[in-house]
């Protein structure tokens, strides 16, 4: 599938939204279900079903399909905020006992993640001046925060 097809057609079923050229923005937070079993299934498979908008909704699902196709990936993760994206990326890579090297003067919530949240779980961080690449290449005897 070429880039134009991905951007303009992938994941879209215009019959579902009255032939509109652009998919609607689904703004609901919750979805209804035929019965309890359907609700249970959706809650257990929230990444691929529509149970709660923060997990997945029709608008986000179209975006995920397009991003994954453009990147040649199986799927994509779309989050509601920058701090969510930063947290998911960091938390998927660190564990208790790890040490992170981070540039100084980061986004305020990233700073909070490294200074307040991660130390509670045994992850330490050293902040360095990122304007000089040598600071990221030198061996560390970290002063931990």
Topology record:
Blueprint: H1 3-8, H2 36-44, H3 58-71, H4 82-91, E1 99-103, H5 108-117, E2 124-128, H6 134-137
Parallel strand pairs: 1-2
Compact overview of the structure:
This protein is mostly helical and 145 residues long. Helices cover 37% and strands 7% of the residues.
Describe this structure as you would to a colleague.
By secondary structure, this protein is mainly α. It is elongated. Helix content is 37%, strand content 7%. The protein has helices at residues 3-8, 36-44, 58-71, 82-91, 108-117, 134-137, and strands at 99-103, 124-128.
How would a crystallographer describe the biggest sheet? Answer: 2 strands, parallel
Radius of gyration: 21 Å
Characterize the overall form: elongated
Distance between the termini: 48 Å
The secondary-structure element order is HHHHEHEH
SS elements, strand count? 2
Query: What count of helical segments does DSSP give?
Result: 6
Helix content: 25-40%
The stretches of 5 or more residues where confidence is low (pLDDT under 50) are none
How do the strands of the widest beta sheet line up side by side? 1-2
The helix-and-strand class reads mainly alpha
Mean pLDDT: 88
Strand proportion, as a percent range, falls in 5-15%
Search tags:
6 helices; two-stranded parallel ribbon; 145 residues; 7% strand; 37% helix; mainly alpha
């Amino acid at each position: 599938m070429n880039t134009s097809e991905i951007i303009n057609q992938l994941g879209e079923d215009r019959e579902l939204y009255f032939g509109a050229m652009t998919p609607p923005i689904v703004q609901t937070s919750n979805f209804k279900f035929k019965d309890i079993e359907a609700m249970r299934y959706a809650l257990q498979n929230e990444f691929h079903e529509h149970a709660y908008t923060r997990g997945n909704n029709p608008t986000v699902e179209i975006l995920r399909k397009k991003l994954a196709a453009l990147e040649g990936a199986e799927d994509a993760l779309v989050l509601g905020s920058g701090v969510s994206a930063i947290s998911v990326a960091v938390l998927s890579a660190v564990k208790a006992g790890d040490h992170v090297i981070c540039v100084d003067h980061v986004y305020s919530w990233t700073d909070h993640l490294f200074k307040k949240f991660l130390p509670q779980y045994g992850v330490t961080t050293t902040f360095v001046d990122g304007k000089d690449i040598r600071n990221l290449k030198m061996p560390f005897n970290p002063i931990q925060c």
